[in-house]
Amino acid sequence: MREEVATDFETKAIGPRPHAYPPQPVGVAIWGGPWHKPVYMAWGHPSGNNCSKAEAGSALKKIWNKYRPVFHHSAFDCEVAMDYFDLSLKPEQYDDTLFEAFIYDPRTENLSLKELAALWLNEPPIERNCLREWILKNCSGATEKNWGAFISQAPVSITGPYAKGDVIRTLNLHRWLQKNLDERDRRYPPSQGQQSWRDAYQRELNSMPILTRMEKRGILLDIHRIARDVPKWDKQIDELGKWIVNRLGGAKKVAAFARKGDFNIDSPVQLADALDAADKVTHWVKTHKGNRSVAKGALAEVISDKLLRDAIQKRSVLTTYRDTYGQKWLDTSVNGHVYPRINQVRNREHDAAKNAGARTGRLSYSDSWQAIPEPSRRPFPELPNLREYVIPSGDRKKKKRILLRRDYTQQEYRILGHYEDGPLLARYQADPFIDMHDEATKMINNITNMDWQRRSVKDMGFGLIYGMGIEATAKKSGQDYDTTQALRKAYYQAIPGLTLLIKNIKAICKRGDPIRTWGGRLYWVEPPSFNKKFNKIMSYDYKMVNILIQGSAADNTKEAMIRADEPLAALGAWFLLQLHDELVIDAEAAKKDKTMIALREAMESVEFDVKMLSSGEWSDKSWGILRKYKDKRGANYDEV
């Protein structure tokens, strides 16, 4: 095992891709191996520099070739090293305390280095305070929020202690986490067939370069079409606003509810006042602060005028489409490409908290890419199909490249069958191609001698997986409380293994023990706390089935990407997007079948007790206009 050396770059201000990221380095801090004391090699500060960039490059080359670098947020440091020093590492050649920390405690609110060191090592960021004070005093434009962008402008005498402190924290945190994670796996050892924390950790390391390449390539948009369509959306939004005002009694009547200037239809308070005055609501759903809620779901429940309700919701969605997507794409695109950030774990060192990833390990994107609906799931069919603006790379007229899409077939249910280890598992093993929602509907109808519809049964199944209560499930499915309660009882009867799984998980939580996802990550139940929404102290063991299944699904999809990466690259294809259980590929048109087969085989090779199946679509036009791909499976497929 190579000696570990903590390495951390200081850079100029971090900007957006493709031209301002990764930012230009001005120094690098090093500690470990032959560097018995932390050093800060600086070449780009206004004063106090102690080496040239070439000398720093020689030191880094030595670390890369002879030692094991340790980073906090390897995606950033590895990209800086590659772009400015032509130094690359394989995922098994370095460590990253960001991934270790996420695996240790995925619920930690802030996974930045200094906060973790203060929390777990009792090492407060004293040097940061000194550097921040100097920057705020001496750098024009620096504020409490953006002072970190000015680090390169501080002298080495001020920046050096800060940078050295970071590598000390990184190496100490790495050793602390490795020790504690190993101790936890010894205390709660993986059972036969389960993976360890080190398997989970290596999966995150292996995923990082794939996601970095996705970020660097960006996403190609039909920017000319967007430029034509956004003004049309502006006009529609304006027309809908005028129609809504007229429906509420006209401009003169609603003007009475204006706070300053004209009536603002986008103001929740003013809109609620106007709805009240026009007698258009049956009651109000209140926010946790006691205010009248004008959120989409709340308005759907309380507005008695269906035409008005639809107009308000349509205008709201179209405004989001314009502000969050269309106009932002126009403002930020470079040569037709946009570059959303991909958040691999709960948080990233250089991302705002609002861009943090999911606690379950699912990926998240900046700029709400994961909220772009499938065409069939638009709230109103006449709304724009946002996915149509995402197009293949290359020369579209010659159709040299196409988009391929594969998603897992009922991923959560297959994982549920893996853990249920009962009738559900048996049915999947007997026929991996079954539609479990259809099967559950048949079983429940046989038990109850009723004619339950697939949609209601599907809503109930996901409600149980997601830990939804009867009231929430009833609201989602549009049924009354008693009907939903009866369906819930029948669902448990049809799939008794689910009842047993929930019971076992609650028993594990009660003992104070963790559950383990398919990929080897441990989760403890959240401690009881006061819930403002329900105005009582609540326990949260009901969430743990969802965490087990969603966490395992996150492991599953990342593992599939890792297994597909090299075969796809050999065929000239690459990942464009990963949205939950959906993978979108940019591929050569002439290699469509080979690429689709390579992706399918990788996705379906991930080892669960239930065969993980997937289905495919493709397009030579856009992500929003897809044609079904007919998979050609061998006669012995069921024996795989």
Given helix and strand content, the structural type is: alpha+beta
- Report helical residue fraction: 40-55%
Specify the number of helices: 21
- Largest beta-sheet details: 5 strands, mixed
Strand order of the largest sheet: 3-2-1-4-5
How much of the sequence lies in strands comes to 5-15%
Distance between the termini: 38 Å
Q: What are the low-pLDDT stretches, counting only 5+ consecutive residues below 50?
A: 348-355, 635-640
Please tell me the overall pLDDT.
91
Based on Cα principal axes, name the global outline: globular
Radius of gyration in whole Å, from Cα? Answer: 27 Å
Tell me what the structure shows.
There is one protein chain. By secondary structure, the chain is α+β, with helices and mostly antiparallel strands. 47% of the residues lie in helices and 13% in strands. The chain has helices spanning 53-66, 74-85, 97-104, 113-121, 126-138, 156-187, 197-217, 223-247, 251-254, 268-277, 296-302, 306-332, 411-420, 423-430, 436-448, 454-465, 470-477, 481-494, 496-511, 544-570, 592-604; strands at 4-11, 25-32, 35-42, 68-71, 95-96, 219-220, 337-338, 342-343, 364-365, 401-408, 515-516, 522-523, 529-531, 536-538, 574-579, 582-588, 614-622, 625-629. A five-stranded mixed sheet has the order 3-2-1-4-5. It has a five-stranded antiparallel sheet with strand order 15-16-10-17-18. It has a two-stranded antiparallel sheet with strand order 6-7. It is globular and about 75 Å long. Mean pLDDT is 91; it is low at 348-355 and 635-640.
